[in-house]
């Protein structure tokens, strides 16, 4: 029996060696296909209530030798965020279909070649304060199955507000107007805002005629704190270093001069920022210089064309009058000829 078992053991050993030898080849013949990966990022770490920013998704195929098809995922936003209107959708992803709802974004049917990726983004709006954590569903594909999820967060709070208006909003050519600014720290904030500031570059045609240097003097902790307004090049207005207590409003103004031609001009500031708060939205204001809706006076060529225009209803009357006058003259001449002959 001992002698017979030796050949059997040898046979098993040979079979095992064949399995070990053929395993790498089998692995090469049937490579493992990995699922796609997904990443996500908000366009800003903080966002003021009611303001908007972008939400960007990046999908990648990590496989170096095989493509992936049927790629898709879904993302439902947290309760403090919603898709902006309009949604600001930009970018594409492997020919897939991108769909947005009031609080969601989805991708379906995308295809990515080996070692490639795609990126697209939508705009979102903050509707509730607090830290908003957004986590997508699993990204999937036909060949690779289900992959992981992506997570990012954004802090939503009460941003300061910036208002801007021209007074008056209609001026004559080369006239002046008072460009008024107002900054407000909402009562819902718990702290003073410090380092408040913004920059405005006036549209071509408007220039700074005069500016104020004292801005919003307020008594904070027994000391007077003001911001600083500077102008440069006659077109740029900047506010820096303003400290504003909760529920306080700060206002200042700059005199500007309009151009010598009729036009409507719109000024737009940069975002209102601070060193310890959430950025506020930009402000816009428009001014009418002269009367841009007036029709330019006609040229001499136009007047001439008007006189000879055959659609002019006065022309037939003129021709008729000329005919009547001419006919009367001819008739009188003929009558004088008849009288002369009768003599």
Number of domains: 2
CATH class division of the largest domain: Mainly Beta
Q: Label the structural class.
A: alpha+beta
- Poorly predicted ranges: 18-23, 25-29, 299-325, 338-342
Termini separation comes to 175 Å
Key terms for this structure?
343 residues; alpha+beta; Immunoglobulin-like; 2 domains; five-stranded antiparallel beta sheet; four-stranded antiparallel beta sheet; 3 helices; 19% helix; disordered C terminus
Structure description:
With 343 residues, the chain is an alpha+beta fold. It folds into two domains: 37-157, Immunoglobulin-like; 161-289, Immunoglobulin-like, CATH 2.60.40. The chain is built from three helices and 24 strands. Strand 7 (97-101) and strand 8 form a beta hairpin. It is elongated. The chain starts with a helix and ends with a helix.
SSE arrangement:
Layout: H1 2-29, E1 37-42, E2 46-48, E3 52-60, E4 68-76, E5 81-83, E6 90-92, E7 97-101, E8 104-112, E9 117-126, E10 130-135, E11 140-141, E12 145-146, E13 151-157, E14 161-167, E15 170-171, E16 176-184, E17 193-201, E18 207-211, E19 215-220, E20 223-232, E21 236-244, E22 249-257, E23 263-268, E24 284-289, H2 300-308, H3 314-342
Parallel strand pairs: 2-13, 15-24
Antiparallel strand pairs: 1-3, 3-9, 4-8, 5-9, 6-9, 7-8, 10-13, 11-12, 14-16, 16-22, 17-21, 18-22, 19-20, 20-21, 23-24
């Amino acid at each position: 029996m001992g002698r017979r078992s030796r050949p059997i053991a040898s046979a098993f050993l040979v079979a095992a060696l064949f399995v070990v030898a053929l395993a790498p080849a089998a692995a090469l013949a049937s490579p493992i296909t990995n699922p796609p990966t997904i990443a996500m990022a908000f366009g800003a770490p903080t966002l003021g209530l009611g303001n908007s920013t972008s939400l960007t998704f990046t999908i990648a195929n990590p496989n170096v030798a095989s493509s992936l098809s049927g790629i898709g995922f879904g993302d439902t936003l947290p309760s403090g965020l919603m898709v902006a209107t309009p949604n600001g959708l930009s970018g594409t992803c492997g020919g897939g279909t991108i769909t947005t709802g009031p609080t969601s974004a989805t991708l379906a049917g995308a295809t990515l070649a080996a070692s490639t990726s795609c990126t697209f983004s939508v705009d979102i709006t903050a509707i509730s304060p607090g830290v908003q954590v957004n986590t997508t569903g699993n990204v999937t594909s036909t060949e690779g199955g289900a992959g992981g999820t992506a997570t990012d967060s954004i802090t939503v709070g009460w941003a300061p507000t910036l208002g801007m208006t021209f007074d008056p909003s209609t001026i004559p050519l080369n006239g002046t107007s008072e460009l008024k600014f107002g900054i407000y720290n909402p009562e819902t904030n718990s702290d003073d805002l410090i380092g408040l500031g913004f920059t405005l570059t006036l549209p071509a045609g408007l220039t700074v005629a005069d500016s104020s240097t004292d801005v919003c003097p307020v008594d904070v902790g027994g000391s007077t704190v003001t911001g600083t307004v500077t102008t440069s090049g006659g077109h740029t207005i900047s506010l820096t270093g303003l400290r504003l207590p909760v529920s306080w409003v700060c206002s200042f103004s700059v005199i500007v001069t309009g151009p010598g031609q009729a036009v409507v001009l719109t000024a737009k500031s940069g975002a209102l920022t601070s060193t310890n708060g959430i950025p506020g939205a930009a402000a816009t204001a428009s001014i009418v210089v002269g009367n841009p809706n007036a029709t330019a006076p006609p040229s001499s060529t136009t007047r001439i064309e008007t006189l000879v225009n055959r659609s002019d209803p006065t022309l037939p009357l003129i021709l008729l009058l000329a005919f009547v006058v001419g006919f009367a003259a001819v008739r009188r001449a003929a009558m004088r000829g008849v009288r002369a002959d009768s003599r």
